[in-house]
Specification:
about 80 residues, about 0% strand, mainly alpha
């Protein structure tokens, strides 16, 4: 199964795991500052890989900002 990873989809998934409103997730915000930990990050990686994303933990952990993740995920 391959899913389109749009900007809206990625931000929605992040908001869900962080239990925050999506409008708080601007491209320059640090996800660590918003409470992202390794367990939540791993759950996102596993979900997105299951849906067809070619990413791994290090791809996202190396730059935990929304904008960087959008770039890594190829969001449109």
């Amino acid at each position: 199964m391959t899913t389109a990873f749009t900007r809206e989809r990625i931000i929605s998934d992040l908001a869900e795991v962080l239990d925050l409103p999506a409008d708080e997730l601007t491209e320059d915000v640090s996800l660590i500052d918003l409470g992202l930990d390794s367990v939540r990050l791993m759950s996102l990686v596993e979900r997105w890989r299951f849906e067809g994303a070619a990413i791994d933990f290090v791809d996202l952990a190396s730059d935990p900002q929304v904008g960087a993740w959008l770039e890594v995920m190829g969001a449109q």
